[in-house]
Amino acid sequence: MEISGKIILVLPERGGVSQRSGSEWKVATYVLETMEQYPKKCCFEVFGVDRITNFNIQVGQMLTVSLDIDAHEYNGRWYNQVRAWKVAPYDPNAVAVPADTAGAAPFPPAQPASDGAFPPAPAAAPAASEGAAPAFGGESTDDLPF
Description:
mainly beta; CATH 2.40.50.140
C-alpha cells in the first residue's frame, strides 16, 4: 500500500536488545498527513538502524511511503502494525493506477458523430414516484423502518 503526504511529526526512536538473538534493534515512528480535501494522518514505523539512516525522514518532507500493514494478538487483544519498507520523494506528476484496472479505460472515449458533433448526453434518471416517500407525518407503503 502506498500513501503520500507531508511528514508532520517525528517521534523519538525506541530501541533495545532482542531476547532471542541478543542483537540491538531500533524503531523510529513518524506521522504523515495526506494532501486530500479532508486530510488524514497515518502513523508508521521504520524498523532497523540501516533503514532509519537510509530513509533520513525529516519533518516537513513530502514523501510517498510504501507500507506493510499487519496485526497481531497479545493477551486476547489485537494490535495493528504499520511499517514502511520503501520511502521516496513525493512526485506530484505521478498518478497512482489501481493494479486491477491498469491499462483498461473505465469508459470508452466519446466519439463524434459523422457530422462532427458529439452525441447528446443521456437523459437524467426519472424522479422517484410521488407515493414513494411521503412528507413528514404521512404514512408510507413500504416496509422499511426509516
